[in-house]
Specification:
Number of strands of chain A: 16
Distance between the termini of chain A: 20 Å
Helix content of chain A: 25-40%
Strand content of chain A: 15-25%
Number of helices of chain A: 12
Oligomer: homodimer
Largest interface: A-B, 72 and 72 residues
Radius of gyration of chain A: 22 Å
Structural class of chain A: alpha+beta
Bound molecules: N-(aminocarbonyl)-beta-alanine
Order of helices and strands of chain A: HHEEEHEHHHEHEEEHEEEEHEEHEHEH
Mean pLDDT of chain A: 97
Chain lengths: 405, 405
């Protein structure tokens, strides 16, 4: 068993990096706060006798050698970045639980056949740089290195510039190596485990996602002198689309999700009819056909804006198919949970995770622990220390089983 | 007659302060660009032999003494601030035409009975600091000095701090002095004069305005894990209100205007259901009863949000009644326009102007010149040199008549 109290302490320490007044964190990818977190992780790894390697897209790798270096390694990890006004556990819990597993193995002098590889992936959230899972996407060959390094945040700063600014533009190639298996531990970010009183979720699949960027361009005009019928009001067009997106999501309930999360008005002044709105739309569904229909419905909604005399420019920037995790990895987790006496259930993730991309290059599965009321991407996100310990224990036993086979 | 070419040159020079790539200006009140403009105006006034006085809210006053110092002065002026991505003439045209009038009088050695007082009012636009006409409002007793100095921009910087930062926190009291008459020259910001081929508009009245700040608070949630029916999506509620505001404006066409010009989402991240939207609403109408009904309709729209489980907080931050300008001042302008052979028509302003507040403390009226296609609060705002000259000539003769009576 892991040292649950020590794990909790590392989580509390990490939560100070980017802490917000309301108890959450804003630790955007490659920000100064993310650097603090990365430096601390390196420091802890070094204290525990490990070396921390940085690749060209800033991913951090900590390797615990096994007895048999020619065997493919077993990987675990997650991400240290957060949403703006995000929670204390989304992502970083999986990284620090992995560190706790390594520390426990060291203390107990437990050797494994295969190497264990702990990773902190860059920019999983897709908040500062879109899309999500950008760096695990590069590592697994979904995105080119050039594409990822050139992505820009809202201030026009590229991933490449941001990596250099915090000293995390490493030299190692961001390219998958042979892996025997991969396991990501994460908070559920939904209410099911807590509501049903079940200890852990074993994730067999994840919904597909499609992300869009849309710009509506009308004509900025004086709010006092421009009659209503002469306006080309980009905001009113946007409002129609936002409500259409919500209707699309409701049509595909319970499994579908449709969200407008971000919008930027130009010039965004009280007495100016908005001339332009840039906004995002995202759809999720476990079924790719349903995603096709949601996407078609979005285009239909954009087509009805005609009378408003707006120019519509829409691009799909992220399209990731629903995935099924590896049954062998799922079985490993089920078995370990049974041995530990943890109650379990099989789940489908509505959130995207680095593991979804890892699944393309290695047999992969995920473990979920409950989170209070399912709240995530919110400063109020919370877990209990006992849940944290359960997840880390389960990760420990799962990794041991996989690393010794 | 004024020197139209010289006036045009000062306008072109001024347009470099805050110039945008698309040919407009972003010269927000009390910004570094506004300071450049203010310094240049002071410099030009000093060159012409005048002194430039700054009051405690940053208003700039340039006085040309008359023969009879005990008589009340005649005032003219407008504002040098702009909208974000605004035009080259809104406001500053009236200030620089006033300067051209003073220069012309000097050159010709023309004396007046009364002093002429040229003003550059602080923060007319209401873009950086809401509400509009803030400093003329203080000068005329509508707002207290304390209220105005404490207004904050979107970054939390107060008017007081911004004044100090650019060195324009003067010491003279911002309090009206006795005035014989006041005339503001401005571009129309609407299409009527150009469309009808009329040289100048003589403004007899201005619409009333009501400005609101509204915050809708729901609950920020994960876009992938939060089912549609569990969401408290502040953006979708906002979208409903924005469309309701547009419908209200259409109900009150042709005279009514209803605009949502600004909105800020929190956290404004692609994969987060928006937890909060702060936005503004403004209504305009020449009839106060109509404004009452528009306001009631807004509250009715907010009341229908009930099912969305959002908290609504709405405040009215600006309520300014429709006004009628002084018939005597209007007659002065009409007479001067006739003498100059300019075609004219009587108009109602949909925009607010410093003159609307001056009207409370002195007999006041306004002159409009055409602007291309009525475009304003837009980088594409444009006027022709001939229009500019017409307006300044008319201002010259109007001021002469008033200052000699
Ligand atoms: N787990 C998580 O919140 N990932 C961010 C990407 C997504 O929105 O699915
Ligand atoms: N003239 C002008 O654009 N004033 C700004 C205040 C308003 O929006 O009416």
């Amino acid at each position: 068993r892991v040292n649950g109290e020590r794990l909790w302490q590392t989580l509390r320490t990490f939560a100070t990096f980017g802490a917000t007044p309301a108890g959450g964190v804003t630790r955007l990818a490659l920000s100064a706060e993310d650097r603090q977190g990365r430096d601390t992780l390196c420091h802890w790894a070094t204290e525990a006798g490990f070396h921390c390697e940085i690749d060209e897209i800033g991913n951090q790798f900590i390797r615990r050698p096994g007895r048999n270096p020619q065997l493919a390694a077993v990987m675990t990890g997650s991400h240290g970045d957060s949403q703006p006004l995000g929670g204390n556990y989304d992502g970083i819990y999986g990284v620090l639980a992995g560190l706790e597993v390594l520390r426990t193995l060291n203390e107990r002098g437990i050797e494994t056949e295969r190497d264990l590889l702990l990773v902190n992936w860059t920019n999983e959230e897709g908040a500062r740089f879109a899309p999500a899972m950008l760096a695990s996407g590069v590592w697994t060959g979904v995105f080119s290195r050039e594409y990822a390094l050139a992505r820009r945040d809202g201030d026009g700063i590229s991933v490449d510039e941001a990596l250099r600014a915090i000293g995390y533009r490493g030299t190692a190639a961001a390219r998958a190596i042979p892996l025997h298996a991969c396991f990501e531990l994460h908070i559920e970010q939904g209410p099911i485990l807590e509501e049903t009183g079940i200890d852990v979720g074993i994730v067999r699949a994840a919904m597909g996602q499609r992300w869009f960027e849309i710009t509506l361009t009308g004509f900025a005009a004086h709010a006092g002198t421009t009659p209503m019928d002469l306006r080309q009001d980009a905001l009113c067009g946007f409002a129609e689309v936002a409500l259409a997106v919500e209707r699309i999501g409701r049509q595909f309930a319970d499994d579908g999700r449709a969200t407008v999360g971000m919008a930027q008005l130009t010039p965004n002044s009280r007495n100016v009819v908005p001339g332009r709105v840039f906004f995002t739309v995202e759809f999720r569904h476990p079924d790719a056909n349903a995603l096709d229909r949601m996407e078609a419905a979005l285009h239909a909604a954009l087509a009805t804006l005609g009378e408003r005399r707006l120019t519509v420019s829409a691009g799909k920037i992220f399209d990731y198919a629903p995935i099924a995790f590896d049954p062998g990895c799922v079985a490993h987790i089920e078995h370990a949970a049974g041995a530990l006496g943890l109650t379990q259930r099989s789940m489908v993730s509505g959130a995207g995770h680095d593991a979804c991309y890892l699944n393309r290059v290695a047999p992969t599965a995920m473990i979920f622990i409950p989170c209070e009321k399912g709240i995530s991407h919110n400063e109020a996100e919370n877990i209990l220390p006992a849940w944290s310990t359960n997840g880390a224990d389960l990760l420990l036993h799962t990794l041991l089983a996989a690393a010794n086979e």
